[in-house]
Design goal:
With about 500 residues, this protein is α/β, with parallel strands linked by helices. The chain is built from 21 helices and 6 strands. Its main location: membrane.
């Protein structure tokens, strides 16, 4: 006789594991959704909407089965700049257009190519975001308004600290923010049974309880209601896409969100033994999610490594866990919105300071400097450029440096000379002869004797560009002294 099985269990064999994991991810996502929205200069509910869409819409699609999508700290700086420049109503247009571009890129099977982006550029991008995020949120932790530019945020910190010391309200606010960061740092060292509660949630709950109990003079989250916060973009807002600055922001949203999502997918794949990520499908899933978020006027979404890692570590087995986490966010936003009004803003600032600091890869920079100084330089220059200029141009500078370094590395060339002191001088070039190494090549060739025959073998060259070919032919014609046999070029590259 065959054993009886529960039909529901056979249909959803991992429902228990996915249900438990979804609750953990919900508890991790809740404070981050709210904190990222506030740091981006938009209503807190818009962060929750993006988290809900990331769970219910993107979470239900194929691509990467266990990574979780929602608002990301990595886009906070860019969103804040966009809202300041174009206004909140334009945010939906920016996000919707970026989502459509992601759909097109996924349909063209461009997802896999994001893996070709230099890791140093990506880490430099995250480091730059982290620096601006930390600097900006330190002002929020003190209850002050942060300067607009990245350099202004960093340069103004000493003055802001001096001003905060003289204000009781600012000191109270700083105390709540610093306590939040300290609790999150200490939380990682608590017993495992305590760490069942995510550190960010525990920090927010403690900070809220302290603020309410002692009636501290700190600002709290403003709540409008989920439906009231939705701002569907009107047709007039799409006219802004005619400006180059707005198109540049759309491109930045698209590239950064796509790169962060697909790099997160690669990292999540290393955390579990389940199905591997289908990169093009995942890019399209992100595109659908951002299109929906844009239509609702919400924040842009990416796949987020913190929530994704929590999902895997909590024992999730299928995409049901991330769909359920979106459902829990929806129920919370619909049934308990007033609970958000109790959360102190400096506590959320503390969470973002902690998240921003983790984006700065200090150990990676040290290791790269020891082994690959060129890559370390690209990382640092990308980060500094983002702070000094802006996100989009900083990433472009990093990409340009990465391409230049790749071209330089690919142009390695070697000159071997066989000179017995008398008779013909035989020289051989090997490697890649490009214009980047032309000065070095010519300096070495011009040092060869001019009063004896010279034979230059080009058979060892893998590549000979037009500039080098022309320069070598000109050198061969002019090198030999009068009365000496002209230079002979041999090999496939010779004419």
């Amino acid at each position: 006789m065959e054993p009886l099985t529960d039909p529901q269990q056979s249909k959803f064999p991992f429902l228990r594991q996915d249900f438990a994991a979804s609750l953990v991810v919900f508890l991790v996502a809740l404070p981050l959704c709210v904190g990222i929205a506030v740091a981006s200069g938009v209503p807190a509910e818009l962060g929750l909407i993006t988290g809900i869409v990331g769970g219910l819409v993107t979470g239900a699609m194929r691509g990467s089965s266990l990574q979780v999508s929602g608002p990301a700290a990595g886009l906070t700086v860019l969103v804040f700049e966009a809202v300041q420049s174009f206004g909140l109503p334009a945010l939906g247009v920016l996000v919707l257009t970026a989502g459509l571009l992601q759909l097109v890129m996924g349909a063209l099977r461009l997802g896999r190519w994001f893996r070709a982006i230099s890791l140093s550029v990506v880490e430099g991008m995250l480091a730059g975001i982290g620096l601006v995020l930390v600097a900006g949120q330190l002002y929020s932790a003190a209850g002050m308004e942060a300067p607009a530019s990245g350099t202004g945020k960093v340069a103004g910190l000493p003055g802001a600290l001096a001003e905060a010391v003289t204000s009781t309200q600012a000191l109270a606010s700083l105390g709540v923010g610093a306590g939040t960061v300290a609790l999150m740092v200490v939380w990682r060292r608590t017993p495992k049974r305590v760490r069942v509660v995510p550190g960010a949630l525990a920090a927010v709950v403690v900070a809220t309880a302290v603020s309410v109990t002692f009636t501290l003079p700190v600002a709290t989250v403003r709540v409008e209601g989920l439906l009231d916060a939705v701002q569907m973009p009107g047709l007039s807002e799409f006219g802004g896409l005619a400006s180059l600055s707005m198109l540049g922001t759309v491109l930045a949203f698209t590239l950064i969100a796509s790169a962060e999502s697909l790099f997160s997918a690669a990292a999540v794949d290393r955390l579990h033994d389940g199905p591997r990520t289908e990169y093009d499908r995942e890019l399209m899933a992100q595109g659908v999610g951002n299109t929906v978020c844009g239509a609702l006027g919400a924040l842009p979404m990416t796949a987020v490594i913190v929530r994704s890692a929590a999902n895997v570590q909590a024992g999730a087995r299928t995409k049901a866990s991330r769909v359920l986490h979106g459902l829990w966010l929806l129920l919370f936003a619909a049934l308990l919105p007033s609970a958000l009004e109790l959360i102190p803003l400096p506590a959320l600032a503390g969470i973002l300071v902690h998240a921003g600091w983790k984006l700065i890869p200090l150990r990676t920079v040290v290791a790269l400097w020891r082994e690959h100084r060129g890559e370390a330089l690209i990382l640092v220059v990308t980060a500094v450029s983002i702070v000094a200029v802006n996100m989009f141009e900083g990433v472009l500078i990093g990409l340009a440096l990465s391409v230049a370094k790749a071209a330089w590395d690919a142009s390695h060339i070697r000159l071997e000379v066989d000179d017995s002191g008398t008779g013909c001088v035989r020289a051989r070039l090997s490697g890649n002869a490009t214009f980047l190494r032309l000065p070095k090549i010519l300096d070495s060739l011009e040092a060869l004797p001019q009063d004896r025959p010279v034979e230059l073998d080009l058979s060892g060259l893998h590549h000979l560009d037009h500039a080098c070919r022309t320069a070598l032919e000109t050198w061969a014609q002019r090198h030999s002294a009068p009365g000496t046999d002209p230079v002979q070029l041999t090999g496939p590259g010779a004419r």
